[in-house]
Amino acid sequence: MHGSGISIWFFIGVSLLVNGVLITGAGIWQVFNPPANPVVLFYLHANVWWGAVLTVIGLLYCFKFAPRRES
Amino acid sequence: MMAAMAMFETMFAPTRLVHLSSIDIVIIAFYFVLVLAIGFYLKSRANTAEDFFMAGREMTAWIAGLSFLSANLGSLELMGWAAAAYQYGILATHWYWIGAIPAMLFLGLVMMPFYYISKTHSVPGYLKLRFGESSRTLSSVSFAFMTVLMSGINMYSMALVMKVVLGWDIHFSIWVSSITVAVYVALGGLRSAIFNEVLQFILIWAGALLIPILGLIEAGGWSNLKLQIAHNASSEYTHLWSTLGTSTGNPMGIHWTGIVFGLGFVISFGYWTTDFLVVQRVLTAKDLRAAKMAPIIGAAFKMMVPFIVILPGLLALAVLPLKLVGETQAVATGGHSYNEVLPLMLARYCGPGLLGLGITALIAGFMSGMAGNVSAFTTVWTYDIYRALIKKDGSDQHYVNMGRWCTIVGVLISVGTAYLVMSFASIMDYVQALFSFFIAPLFGTVVLGMLWKRATSAGGFLGLLAGTVSSIGMWAWVKVDPSAIRYVAMSPSATDMAANMYRALWSWIVCVVVTVAVSYVTTPKTDAELNGLVYGVTVMPHEEPVAFYHRPVFWAIVVSIVFVILNLLLW
Fold first, then answer.
1. Of A5, A18, A46, Cβ closest to residue B210
2. Per the domain annotation, does B556 fall within a domain?
3. Is residue A36 a part of any domain in this protein?
4. Has residue A54 been placed in a domain?
5. What is the DSSP string of A3-67?
6. Distance of residue A12 Cα from the nearest chain B Cα, in angstroms
């Protein structure tokens, strides 16, 4: 699907990027405003680093498979 | 925006397994927007029948392979096998490894060339070319009927899960998901379904991978996990093969012959090589090498799926402070059932945002399962029933329009089925069983058709019919007289799961024996007629020489070696 319209990998990049940003944002908010009933292993702040991983992968896919780069 | 969210949240019942925050709802809403956007974008690329029903036959091996796997990786599959892992231990892994990998490799290396070279649009279409119209009609009518029912069951199951997990209204879940699926499949056809399946595959990994990672951290690693499971349940729960010497020595009540021959051979090969729902994805590959490579890529990822499905079930045995029970007992006591293990583990480790992503993965899995069923139904209805039996001379545009309408009608029938199941829950058990009646005999018919040139049209049709009838007969026999399970499953203590495996094995044998016997007394087709359809009389198209690491057989060997090592490690 590469080279003939928008690649599926671009849509996936957008999805990971948006989700990653939202999850990281929620995680950082919780670092400064800890919840009353935290999840197990809350101190690892999984949503911060997992969200960051998704954001980076999403950015890479958005950049690599951006429609303008395929024309 | 916040007011809308507050209204959205108040729509749902107060009883729920997990509570979503505003950020979780934004993530779920974004998923719906994205799949609809993909459908609208792909509408302009679904103008011909080849585009609409076969995605233009231009998919790369990666997209076809991930879609092939994803069409099977629905949420019922994820939640069901996580529950099975809690209930039966690591034995549930067999459904991902021996119950899938050999069959997927066989499809890629042996069967795919014939499906691909024959340029068939469907598995019933191959039967038409090989055995004639009667075999196609039998398999296409049964497949179309069952597929649309399965779609409805999937829809109902999703609504039920959303009700239990999130407290969502069941009608809201059914209608929102079905309208979304109808819109994006009717607009973009199979290409749209495939794009969303690949997206779903990524979301499932993004949403579910944290559970085993954090679970292993909490449990203190694999060795400590095994010790805790041995303490809380039994050490049998962490052995893949060593407890299968007798059917009473393991939690599933199954003998290794049932796993190897029933699951590993008949059920697995039947499902992965002849169920059009999954095979259709590979038929969209852009060339023969991509078509052979796609199932091998699917097999490589299939081997990893237990990490996000089986391991959470095992982790729950070790770390959950509560004891999960069967569905009936859970309803009676107000406790939690095995089926809730995955959402419970999700809620245990995932805070705001991550929870939304995990729930999105579940919703995506359900919707993708519905879309897969509906798109396969649309193709079989249009090509193998409507065009073959009702209107043979329609224009290309006519069949595309039929496909779009058929998608909408298929979704509406699915909604009807969902409401039917809501009223008569036992229908679900019957339909699941009905679906299994056709898969094992169909594998017998297709594999003989591809590998044995002596198989005749009459042999193929009567073998398929006899196998199906015998499977229904054995099922009915056990329903009427439960003690008959000692004959069907070779053990009086066999579970339903074990009975399914042996019934599949016997019906496959009946199909093969009848096909062979009838073929020997009827006239076969000539070699020229079988070119492109049967091994030994087909001239394979020339493939450009490529480096060894681009060859499907090389990667099939790599996957096989890893498969053997994993089984030995967890023996």
1. A46
2. no
3. yes
4. yes
5. TSSS-HHHHHHHHHHHHHHHHHHHHHHHHHS--SSPPTTGGG-HHHHHHHHHHHHHHHHHHHT-H
6. 6
pLDDT-derived band at B521 (thresholds 50, 70, 90) equals very high
Report how far residue A61's alpha carbon sits from residue A48's, in angstroms, rounded to the nearest whole number.
20
Residue with tokens 């339903």: B496
A22 occurs within a structural domain: yes
Q: What is the pLDDT of residues B327-373, one digit of tens each?
A: 778 778 878 888 888 888 988 999 999 999 999 988 888 888 888 88
DSSP letter, residue B59? B
Per the structure, the count of domains in chain B is: 1
Is A31 within 8 Å of chain B by CB?
A: no
Quick check: ipTM above 0.95?
no
Radius of gyration of the CA atoms of chain B, in A = 23
Query: Domain limits at A39?
Result: 8-70
For B199, the closest of A15, A44, A46 (CB atoms) is A15
Q: Which residues of A touch B31 (CB under 8 A)?
A: 15
Identify which of B194, B187, B407 has the alpha carbon closest to the alpha carbon of residue B283.
Answer: B194
Residue of chain A minimizing CA distance to B41: A6
Closest-CA residue of chain B to A20? B353
According to the model, what pLDDT value does residue A2 have? 45
Q: What is the DSSP letter of B534?
A: S
pLDDT classification of B15: cutoffs 50, 70, 90: low
pTM for the complete prediction?
A: 0.88
Q: If you search the block for the tokens 């006899």, which residue do you land on?
A: B466
Residue type, B103: A
Q: Is residue A3 domain-resident? A: no
Record: contact B21-A26, CB cut-off 8 A = yes
Considering chain A, what is the average pLDDT of its residues? 89
Cross-chain Cβ contact A15/B203 below 8 Å = yes
- Which of A14, A29, A47, A49 to mutate to probe the B interface, most B CBs <10 Å? A47
Cβ contact (<8 Å) for B60 and A2? yes
Length of chain B: 571
**What is the pLDDT, as a whole number, of residue B438?**
83
On whether residue B560 sits in a domain, the answer given is: no
Q: What angle do CA B156, B160, B166 make, to 5 degrees?
A: 140
Domain with residue B461: its CATH number is 1.20.1730.10
Beta strands in B354-480 (DSSP E): none
Q: Computed over its alpha carbons, how large is the radius of gyration of chain A?
A: 16
- Using CB atoms, pick whichever of B26, B199, B206 lies closest to residue A22: B26
Number of domains observed in the structure of chain A: 1
Residues of A in contact with B349 (CB under 8 A): 39-41, 46
Domain range enclosing B379 = 23-537
A35 interaction partners in chain B (CB closer than 8 Å): 351
